[in-house]
Amino acid sequence: MVEYSLSNFSHRVSAWLSERRVVDGFFIIGWMYLPPHDPHVDDPMRFKPLFRIHLMERKSATVECMYGHRGPHNGHIQIVKKDEFSTKCNQTDHHRMSGGRQEEFRTWLREEWGRTLEDIFHEHMQELILMKFIYTSQYDNCLTYRRIYLPPSRPDDLIRPGLFKGTYGSHGLEIVMLSFHGQRARGTKITGDPNIPAGQQTVEIDLRHRIQLPDVESLRDFSELSRIVLEVREQVRQEEQQEDGPEDTEGRGQQSPREPQLGPAPPCKEPPAKLGGEPGDGGAAAEAEQLAHSGQGQPFVLPAGVSSRNEDYPRTCRMCFYGTGLIAGHGFTSPERTPGVFILFDEDRFGFIWLELKSFSLYSRVQAAFRNADAPSPQAFEEMLKNIQSLTS
């Protein structure tokens, strides 16, 4: 089995190729690997066949497109270069339905979202879903695939890295790859949406700046959480100024006027948010493991006014860190990194509070096993991340 990313398909996570013997040869099948229906992040992934290669014993092969609702039909596959190939459907009329685009949209909505148009009352959500349908259906299974690697794991990682299903408001569920890079962790989108495409770094976590949340009653007050996070952001900004020097600091920490801004943090009446261990000592990971074994954790609740697609989030967390999240307008316009809080719940779940958006994303680990997906070296993994980000930058 080999995993490939779909560079042209924003909402599909990957295709994996399986092989099985039949009487007259082999079938190699490429599968669409889709997230569960929104907002059920803990549900298993879904699979649909995308294309099929029939390898004959006469050293010949036929290619079939499996996309659409009218059965297998003629397709084409081309090897572009190492670890990259493309597919093309030669009979795209097999993707059409007798009821036209309206029937195709309603069918897509039931399959991709598990609901009907009448179930969606929010006008903005209807607009985003329609945009995703238009964007993804235009390719008609003419796609380019590039290999992706799973992130390497180290003993001092906060949790085991890998793929996670996450809630993204009206965009639905998306797949994010969590990886660790020294004193930072990154969440890279493997699937995207009309605002932030696949390949972009959706969240970045600063493992040097631990955040100590207040008690539950104080945490319910969004302004209190905002004060704590903005204090840490200012501390990070000052540290960056000291590291880079005054000539490189112009414009750091500035916010874009296109989004509603939070007010300035009030004067500090309490000590700054507590930080974790010294960089590189593995203290955060060791403490997380200790909490896991002891069954202890800090009570957690979302502040009032913070929206969440999934109300069934954990009510205890191990630890929190300062982070930034990437937001942008439609078409990835005016992207900017904004402050937030990374919440580690357990080995398989974490969350992120987007401070400016007053929104909460819950992430749950993809439990499916992948073979032949390990990077040959850490350098190869880093190079892959750069390549997939460059496709949409």
Automatic annotation (TrEMBL):
<keyword id="KW-0833">Ubl conjugation pathway</keyword>
<comment type="pathway">
    <text>Protein modification; protein ubiquitination.</text>
</comment>
<dbReference type="InterPro" id="IPR045048">
    <property type="entry name" value="FBXO31/39"/>
</dbReference>
<dbReference type="GO" id="GO:0016567">
    <property type="term" value="P:protein ubiquitination"/>
</dbReference>
<protein>
    <submittedName>
        <fullName>F-box protein 31</fullName>
    </submittedName>
</protein>
<dbReference type="Pfam" id="PF12014">
    <property type="entry name" value="Cyclin_D1_bind"/>
</dbReference>
<feature type="compositionally biased region" description="Low complexity">
    <location>
        <begin position="284"/>
        <end position="295"/>
    </location>
</feature>
<feature type="region of interest" description="Disordered">
    <location>
        <begin position="236"/>
        <end position="307"/>
    </location>
</feature>
